[in-house]
Amino acid sequence: MRIPFGWLQNYVKIDVSPQEACLHLIMLGFSDAEVIPNEWECLDNFVVGRATEVKPHPKAPHLKVVRVNLGYTDMTSVCGAPNVVEGGTYAVALPGARLGGGQTVSRAEIDGVASDCVLCSGWEAWLDDSKDTLLELDHDLVPGARLLEALGLDEPVIEAEVTPNRGDCLGLIGIARELAAVFGKELIIPEPAPKYCDADTSEVVSVEISDVEGCPRYGAIALEGVRVRSSSASMRARLRLAGLRPINNVVDAANFVMFETGHPLHAFDLDRITDSSVIVRRAREQEKIEAIDGKQYNLTPDDLVIADAARPIAIAGVIGGKNSEVSDKTSRVLVEGAFFEKSLIWRTSKRLTIPSEAAYRFARGVDIEAIPYVLARAAEIIQEDTGCRVARSRVDVYPQPRPARYVIASPKRINKLLGTSIPEQEICDYLERLGFVVTPGRELDISVPTRRDDVEAEADIAEEVARLYGYDRIPPAEDRACRSHGKISQNMLVSGYVRRVLKGMGFTEVVTDTMVSPETLELFNMTGPEVVEIRNPVGVNASLMRTSLIPGILDVLVRNEYRGEEGVAVFEVGKVYSRTEDNFIEGCHLVLGLSGLREARAWYGRSRSFDFFDIKGVLEAVLADFGISVNFEPDGPAFLHPGRSALVQTDGGELGLIGEILPDIASHYGSKRRLYVAEIDFEPLVQRGLVARRMRQRPRYPAVKRDIAVVVPKTVLDMEIRSVILHEGGDLIESVETFDLYEGRPIPKGKKSLAYAIAFRHPSRTLKESEIDEIQQKIEMRISKELGGSIRKQSQ
Amino acid sequence: MDLHNEAVKIREAAAKAIQACRTTEDIEAVRVKYVGRKGRLTQLLRKLGDVPAEQRKEAGRILNETKEELTSLLTSRRSEIEESVRQQVRASETIDVTLPGRKPRLGKLHPTLRVLDEIVNVFIGLGFAVVEGPEIETEYNNFDALNFPPWHPSRDDFDSFYVAEGYVLRTHTSPAQIRVMKSQDPPVRVIVPGRCYRRDTPDASHLMSFFQIEGLYVDHDVSLADLKGTLAIFAREVFGPQTKIRFRPHYFPFTEPSAELDISCLVCAGKGCRLCKHSGWLEVLGCGMVHPNVFKHVGYDHRAVTGFAFGLGVERIAMLKYGIADIRTLYENDVRVLNGL
Ligand SMILES: [Zn+2]
After folding, report:
1. Is the peptide bond before A246 cis (omega within 30 degrees of 0)?
2. B247 in a domain, yes or no?
3. What is the pLDDT of residues B33-62, one digit of tens each?
4. Cα nearest neighbour of A363 on chain B
5. pTM check: above 0.90
6. Count of domains for chain B
7. Contact (CB<8Å) A505/B105
8. Does the distance separating the beta carbons of A565 and B331 come in below 8 Å?
9. Do both B83 and B125 map to the same domain?
10. What was the ipTM of the complex prediction?
11. Which residue, A452, B33, B168, B174, has most beta carbons within 10 Å?
12. pLDDT in tens, B163-183
């Protein structure tokens, strides 16, 4: 909302600078109120000039040599405009001025005559579109005055945000009311008093509302003998400062009243309304209208229109129709003042993308009771300008007048809510300044002004009181801030712990998009009926909710590879989404990603790339920390390398997967590296939590340690050998570590050598060597029989 | 017996033995032999009683001097030996201690979530309990129960993502208020962090998905002053003890009175700079007193309790703290950037 500061003073006389007024507006709830830079600074080198002598040019018959009085001096201008006359007052661009066309004025010689300055057309003076004739200024302007000041365009303008609940402040009177209340000043509301003639609007036009919900009140007033032309200079200046383009005296008057009161008005050419009948109705299917912006709009029954007997003549509250527009041929005008349902106007203007000033205001709500006032005010202004006749009686269709709204409020409860102790008298005073009528009693009985449909209950009243009392005067009460005990959620506790563990292991945390493309899910074979689809995505690339964190982490790995990062270790703890027929499910996953170098080149060792066992080791460590034991079953989904992937299994079922990304997919992403990922369901960790495990007795009897080395076919898995060892050793086994893997000479082709360090221990006695020998023999026998292995004797 | 002569002999013998020591063990042996509990000099001292009284004083002085002298010889010889051992070890095992250490990999947590954790911790300290809510939310919880009028723009397809009839990707963390209040009686003091969605075109200050933290406190007599006090503590804890706050009226459908909280500018401390657009203030969150209609929706007696609620954008605070100008930088996941924060 633009607030020309001089114009505002018509409604409230406040004795502060515009900057200071901004601070008050901010503290009243009008965010970001500030004085904006003057948009008319382009008129800096323009002055008012009077033509004192107009002579023909000695050489060029179509030019004239004009002597221009600028008050303090005279200048000569060579001018080709047809309307230049002696005694005329014009806008003069001095050397250095930039004209509307872009050129800069300088002294010049035109066919032998020196020209010091330029007499300007409206276009050259930045004010309108007319190029061929000079802009004629009012004769009472003083020659030599700066054009900016002479036209009243030098006043400061405040721009402030008006929140959507405060439609009443989309007019200057609304803003003035707020400031008057803060400063305890009088609010000056113009009292329109047009001279009425005996005509009756209802005799020249009939009005019918067929959608009373969409339009609860429709008023109109007829004007006859209107001479349409451009508005006075001061009117045009006001509108320009407000950011509106002057059109003609009728439209300008309607806009002026809108800007003054916040209530939009529309003017029709009464002679172009078919059968003089106005109907407020929904648009018909496939109905079209050409609007005054020159565009064709297709309407639907969701749109409210103003129609005559034959066709729509305006989209209600949004924009007028070309077919009923006021033009310079118009002499009879119908001014409309109506109330339209907010949501209808909002939807129509949004769907048709017509962000008009009128729609903006109707969508935020106007004062239904102000309609007679705004019609009279518009009639008065048009009459002052044109001397037209104004019909004594208006049309006013208002089938169900709205009841007045009352709110009961107690000063005690208001103070309790605000944490203040404002005396009752002060509370009443604040409310009355804002136009509420307060009847004191045990509780306050407050009548709410009709323009304030945002005020419905006591809390709203409390806000009004707080705004005028001053939010900055409310004492901060910190003591009560510490009354109950706080607690972190289990999910944040566990994820916070794991995130910090992973950070310590060298992983960088990332946050990736939750909305993904169908293409991605297809690539990973993750499509299916369980995928949650967004019905109105912004683009297809973000139209599905992710079911896995792997595509996102892969993207991060590859992007960082592109950026030249040698080794990338990243993780994310995030949500995944799925649905059933009638339910939505949100899960939490942990994903790890590795690519590139684990060790960069350094003096202490060779560089080395990340491999499968790096990512597996991290996952194992995290799970072991939570006491979760898992098996890694070879093979995984199709997007993983068939020989380098595994499903992570617990007793309770599948926990997740791990492996190298299928090289085809990696290169599809543009990666030149091997990429490793692991993803697990995080919920079991959250459920298990950070439990305190009972302390175990320190061992009191010594362990017996044995190494077993076996040569087995390459296809035999470490897991198979281990399970033999664990099975035979039973409770006596304390630990088994695979400490060597070797292929190549002297081991035969197709075979590999593995070595295990086993520790045996009994809790309550010393083990005998012979016992262990027996177990070892059993292990060795089973490995050779069941796994086709042989034992390599080791010197112990 | 001539104690004096005896002492001189012991001193000479001991001095020779000390000089001959090569290890600290040798030193210990010499010490035991001469000045230990059963050492020769100690035994001599015990005999002092047999000396005639007029000579005893002089004899005692000589013996004690001898003991002190030997002890000091032992000590200095021991240091000599120890120093020579250090020299030998140094010569054989010296490394270049100025070489860089083996670099452990150390990661970083994501700046948005670091700030989220930090803010959550502040509120836990103030007695708030953390709860979380779903991102796929009912339209009812996201809008209706929060007193959004049916025509409110944010309900529209243009502004919110819908995944099914009546289901929306939550546009703020506020619907968690409804879930909490429906599941428990007052008093309620919770904080709800989480991801939210709006159908914005991404630019330097907007994303389609972002993190918010919601706070809610409902009890008897909770007032706007309590809200202001709580947020004053929050601002000091998160932005530093010198931070000032400013409360401005604002509008939200689910609070009344509503306010926006500004903090004094982190760069210019209120003098005016580019970051704060020369106002001296930075907007950080929206808040207010819970609207009575919200209480009605969850079945609370709006005459018996009052409450405050606030919602803050985590990214905005992360950007302020880390000096990030473009919100999208946070989610490029460039590890060079992330590891440098
Ligand atoms: Zn600043």
Report:
1. no
2. yes
3. 988 888 888 888 888 888 888 888 888 888
4. B151
5. no
6. 2
7. yes
8. no
9. no
10. 0.79
11. B174
12. 998 999 999 999 999 999 999
